[in-house]
Design a protein that fits this description.
The structure is a homodimer. By secondary structure, chain A is α+β, with helices and mostly antiparallel strands. Helices cover 40% and strands 18% of the residues of chain A. In chain A, strands 2-1-3-4 form a 4-stranded mixed beta sheet. In chain A, a hairpin with a 2-residue loop joins strand 1 and strand 2. Strand 4 of chain A pairs parallel with strand 5 of chain B.
Chain lengths: 158, 158
């Protein structure tokens, strides 16, 4: 039976988060683990790198996939210093991670003005009640790429 | 008054999506527009680039921010060939985009086995009912990076 030292990995995610503040980043860190080994790490570089998607978890997922040259992280777990925002949670689903371990909560993040909770609320609303308006158009024409996809015999699905 | 040719931008997003299928990518494209000009484009390169976050909208956001050297896309609109998945919708919120125009729907995407709808459903569930298990741990220690953040006088908030 595999004995996993969860605290070791979470301690590293938290250490990365704290170190990243000193390095001009946001207070978030994550590590991805496979078979008891860290395969990637990530920290929040949104303002430092001008990339609103550079959250710790997204960055760790991108690095793990790039390093392993795969687009699904089967059998991998993520340890993140704070509960994932909806962007990161969705990225975790797309990446097919196995288990999420998290330190701080959405409420802890809100206490330092990172309001992930607002986006969770918005996603749950019907389009017409969200704060960013959303307009459907040209649905008929938009089937063209899907039709091209259906007809492509060597397509790579995921 | 600004007259915006919405169809021109959506046509380009759809064209990029179709072209991307021929180039080995997924059938999705997006353009970001500011002041009537395209500032970035993105296509789905998940399998091609081994990056589960390389959806059209996320890629367009990353490119726009990198090119303009900003981390908030105030006053920018996104035209996407298909309704954003929850990862992309959240990224659109983090980036502060102004308006979303979309072509195909979640249902259209599901018809070619891109099941964004499943992730929307999962996000809405309480942790213990989601298909990816999630375990809180070391919440006390996880306050360290947040405390470092509070104490950092030159922090860049967003």
């Amino acid at each position: 039976m595999e004995i996993v030292n969860h605290e070791k990995f979470m301690t590293e995610a938290i250490r990365l988060a704290t170190e990243n503040v000193a390095n001009g980043g946001g207070p978030f860190g994550a590590v991805i683990v496979k078979d008891g080994e860290i395969v990637s790490t990530g920290v929040n570089r949104v303002t430092a790198n001008c990339d609103p998607t550079a959250h710790a978890e997204v960055s760790a997922i991108r690095e793990a996939c790039s390093s392993l040259q795969i687009f699904k992280l089967d059998g991998c777990d993520i340890y993140t210093s704070c509960e994932p925002c909806p962007m990161c949670l969705s990225a975790i689903y797309w990446a097919g991670l196995r288990h999420i371990y998290y330190g701080g909560t959405q409420q802890d993040a809100a206490s330092i003005d990172f309001d992930d909770h607002f986006i969770y609320e918005e996603i749950a609303l019907p389009h017409e009640r969200r704060s960013i308006p959303s307009t459907p158009m040209m649905r008929h024409e938009a089937q063209q790429p899907f039709e091209a996809w259906r007809q492509k015999e060597d397509r790579v699905s995921y």
